[in-house]
């Protein structure tokens, strides 16, 4: 009966829902009726035998899912790629299927042990034999696809499954005769949907609704235009009939309890390929290396999440575990993705996390010229806070002026007839025509410090949300200690502060820190300066008496009067020198010659003459003052702190204090060891800090300068 359509089925003698390996099986363990299952299976068998030749494989006790012969392997011509099941519950089926295929004279290919692939359940031929649709995401691995392409000599189109209920490709996707495609689009990610739409013209696509999808309408067997299926809605039936199909509904509810229906219960044995096809699997792959405290930190988990979330998959090639607690581990991963674009997205995210492309495949960084000033080439590499190196002419060179959200420019200069290269970070707006900008992902690596010793004295507490008072105290103790160290070695601490510092009564403490030499630069906006000066002049902040916490009659005017007064003198410095301002944060800055920068914003009153309303200039000013900082204390100003954070490279300790946990999380979560978040009242924090420093013997509290009477 050669030339006839042939299928393989397996009688349900030992069929039962014995375990849960897909969402359909949940709540159905031992809930299927053997008798009904047998009837339903026989009905399908008889429909199929009327239209094709059906071969049977002997069922084996203990392997209840063996009825689902679609998962035996993938056949093309006389070749089979044997399945390698994901779940141990089904792995025992493999040898039985293998033996059967060999008996029948097929050439059997077996995937490397690490590669999971579940046969025709996850790989469906275009009915004209032009290419193979292959699913991945739940049961089969993307990395198996290149093997299918190689062994079967066919183009493979990889589709990513994203809905757990449709864990095998054949549960939501069914190529039909005449180039039609019955499928459930939401079961696939965006890219896969795009791929489907590129290959199947609109008039050939038959998308189904969820009601049909969950009755396994896509799990259909098309025998020359007759569609055998569990159940379809009247609408879908009509659609299929209009396209010339005959629909035969045959109830398979007992098998739905195990997550399968008509198509799963059959394996087409006579698949052929259209002769002219070109065997290419469009899977691209690169080897990346991760190094660090992979086990203690969540580095590896994050990398894997990032690969899968972006539509790729991975395989672990090598895993070298660090011997001692302090030593680092190394993992070599093969990252695969269905397109160049996806692969690039994944690789750049991994590089951002500190991964490296393997040295053997490493190329020079791709440089593109700037064509319009202030505009970067399309796929420019976006910088991170981490020290970065780029590969130019075979050499790795360090990138200067590291900051995040910048671009890297490479410059070459002549040095005794040889070109010397250098690289630096800059902003998009500062790019000049002709600048060579690093693009793509090749030839870029970021350097992470992986010292475990350091993190033992690291004062991190993030994740716990709100800090208990005792915890705040411990953190403050450590920060005080660190501040003292920085001061003693002539280092640099920069404070970024919002007006809340003054409202919460932290002004005098901040003034103390400045006076005692713990602060080397102060960054803020118009408001903190106005409030601080108002407090010195009137004892109020935005009209509220700070010692009593109550509004002062007519106090709201204090704010504008303060601004006006400083405007009269021309600058804060002039007002201090004239003896008008006699204390407070800015008074101490002027006295101690601590530089400050006030960045303006749309809501500013005044502004003060010192406030820089040209924001580009203000950003440059901030960047200048942040340069060389060892520690940045961010006190209750999300706006200015984020601004400062963007300019600060990794390695600088960031302390973020805010009463709002969301702000703290946003600021402190830079993925670096050095940031610490403290959820507390900033006034309280500063007062504790000054106390701690006093205890360390470094600060003795001088009496507050008397408030000037006005
Ligand atoms: N219980 C089986 C499993 O989860 C059902 C297999 C259905 N087969 C299919 N080709 N979709 O593996």
Describe the structure.
The chain is an alpha/beta fold and 710 residues long. The chain folds into 4 domains: 6-268, L-arginine/glycine Amidinotransferase, Chain A; 283-362, Alpha-Beta Plaits (2-Layer Sandwich), CATH 3.30.70; 364-453, conserved putative lor/sdh protein from methanococcus maripaludis s2 fold, CATH 2.40.420.10; 465-695, Rossmann fold. The protein is 30% helix and 23% strand. It is built from 22 helices and 36 strands. Strands 20-25-23-24-22-21-26 form a 7-stranded mixed beta sheet, with no helix packed on it. Helix 12 (469-488) crosses helix 22 (682-695), helix 14 (507-515) runs parallel beside helix 22 (682-695) and helix 15 crosses helix 16 (556-569). The longest helix is centred in the C-terminal third of the chain and has 20 residues, at 469-488. Bound molecules: arginine. Arginine (ARG) is lined by residues 21-22, 65, 68, 70-71, 90, 121, 168, 170-171, 258-260, 264.
List strands and helices in order, with pairings.
Blueprint (H helix, E strand, L loop, with lengths): L5 E4 L24 H18 L1 E4 L16 E4 L2 E4 L5 H4 L2 H10 L3 E3 L13 E3 L6 E5 L8 H8 L3 E5 L12 E3 L5 E3 L6 H10 L5 E3 L2 H5 L6 E3 L2 E4 L4 H9 L3 E4 L3 H4 L10 E2 L15 E9 L6 H11 L3 E8 L8 E9 L2 H13 L3 E2 L8 E4 L18 E5 L2 E6 L6 E9 L2 E9 L9 E4 L4 E3 L5 H5 L12 H20 L4 E5 L2 H4 L3 H9 L5 E5 H13 L1 E2 L2 E2 L4 E2 L4 H14 L2 H6 L7 H7 L4 E4 L11 E2 L2 H12 L4 E5 L2 H10 L5 E6 L2 H8 L6 E5 L2 H14 L15
Parallel strand pairs: 1-2, 4-5, 7-8, 10-11, 13-14, 22-24, 27-28, 27-34, 28-32, 32-33, 34-35, 35-36
Antiparallel strand pairs: 1-15, 3-4, 6-7, 9-10, 12-13, 16-18, 16-19, 17-18, 20-25, 21-22, 21-26, 23-24, 23-25, 29-30, 30-31
Helix pairs in contact: 12-22, 14-18, 14-22, 15-16
The site of arginine has 15 residues, from loops.
């Amino acid at each position: 009966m050669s030339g006839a359509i042939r299928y393989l089925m397996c009688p349900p003698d030992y069929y039962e829902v014995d375990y849960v390996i897909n969402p359909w099986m949940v709540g159905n363990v031992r809930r299927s009726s053997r008798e009904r299952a047998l009837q339903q299976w026989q009905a399908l068998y008889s429909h199929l035998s009327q239209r094709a030749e059906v071969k049977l494989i002997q069922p084996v006790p203990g392997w209840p899912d063996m009825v689902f012969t679609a998962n035996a392997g993938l056949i093309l011509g006389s070749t089979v790629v044997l399945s390698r099941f994901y779940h141990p519950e089904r792995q025992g089926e493999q040898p039985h299927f293998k033996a059967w295929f060999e008996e029948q004279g097929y050439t059997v290919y077996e995937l490397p042990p690490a590669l999971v692939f579940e046969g025709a359940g996850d790989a469906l031929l275009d009915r004209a034999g032009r290419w193979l649709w292959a699913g991945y995401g739940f049961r089969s691995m993307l990395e198996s696809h290149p093997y299918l392409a190689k062994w079967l000599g066919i183009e493979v189109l990889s589709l990513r499954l994203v809905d757990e209920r449709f864990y095998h490709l054949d549960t939501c996707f069914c190529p039909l005769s005449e180039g039609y495609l019955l499928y459930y689009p939401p079961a696939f990610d965006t890219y896969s949907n795009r791929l489907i739409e590129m290959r199947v013209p609109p008039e050939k696509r038959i998308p189904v609704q969820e009601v049909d999808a969950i009755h396994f309408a896509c799990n259909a067997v098309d025998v020359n235009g007759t569609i055998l299926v569990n159940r379809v809605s009247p609408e879908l039936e009509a659609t299929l009939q209009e396209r010339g199909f005959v629909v035969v509904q045959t109830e398979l509810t007992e098998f739905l309890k195990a997550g399968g229906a008509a198509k799963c219960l059959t394996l087409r044995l006579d698949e052929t390929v259209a002769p002219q096809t070109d065997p290419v699997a469009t899977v691209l792959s690169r080897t990346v290396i991760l190094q660090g405290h992979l086990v203690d930190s969540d580095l590896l988990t994050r990398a894997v999440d990032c690969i899968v979330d972006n539509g790729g998959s991975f395989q672990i090639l090598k895993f070298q575990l660090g011997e001692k607690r302090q030593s680092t581990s190394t993992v070599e991963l093969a990252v695969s993705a269905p397109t160049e674009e996806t692969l690039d997205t994944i690789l750049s995210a991994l590089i951002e996390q500190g991964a490296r492309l393997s040295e053997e495949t490493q190329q020079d960084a791709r440089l593109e010229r700037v064509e319009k000033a202030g505009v970067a080439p399309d796929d420019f590499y976006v910088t991170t806070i981490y020290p970065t190196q780029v590969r130019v002419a075979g050499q790795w060179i360090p990138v200067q002026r590291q900051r995040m959200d910048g671009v890297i420019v490479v410059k070459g200069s002549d040095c005794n007839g040889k070109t010397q290269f250098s690289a630096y970070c800059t902003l998009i707006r500062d790019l000049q025509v002709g600048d060579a900008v690093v693009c793509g992902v090749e030839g870029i690596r970021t350097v992470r410090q992986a010292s475990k010793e350091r993190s033992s004295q690291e004062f991190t507490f993030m994740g716990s949300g709100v800090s208990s008072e005792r915890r705040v105290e411990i953190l403050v103790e450590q920060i005080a200690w660190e501040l003292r160290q920085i001061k003693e070695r002539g280092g640099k601490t920069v404070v970024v502060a919002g007006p809340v510092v003054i409202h919460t009564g932290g002004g005098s403490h901040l003034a103390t820190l400045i006076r005692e030499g713990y602060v080397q630069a102060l960054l803020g906006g118009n408001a903190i300066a106005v409030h601080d000066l108002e407090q010195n002049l009137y004892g109020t902040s935005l009209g509220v008496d700070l010692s009593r916490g109550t509004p002062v009659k007519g106090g709201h005017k204090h704010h504008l009067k303060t601004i006006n007064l400083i405007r009269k003198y021309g600058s804060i410095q002039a007002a201090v020198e004239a003896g008008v301002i006699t204390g407070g944060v800015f008074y101490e800055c002027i006295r101690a010659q601590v530089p400050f920068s006030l960045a303006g914003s749309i809501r500013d009153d005044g502004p003060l003459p010192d406030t820089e309303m040209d924001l580009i200039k203000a950003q440059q000013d901030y960047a200048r003052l942040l340069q060389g900082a060892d520690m940045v204390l961010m006190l209750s100003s999300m706006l200015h702190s984020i601004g400062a954070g963007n300019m600060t490279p990794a390695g600088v300790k960031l302390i973020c204090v805010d009463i709002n946990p969301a702000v703290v999380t946003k600021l402190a979560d830079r993925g670096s060891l050095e940031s610490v978040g403290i959820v507390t009242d900033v006034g309280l924090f500063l007062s504790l800090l000054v106390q701690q420093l006093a205890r360390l013997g470094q600060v003795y509290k001088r009496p507050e300068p008397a408030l000037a009477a006005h």
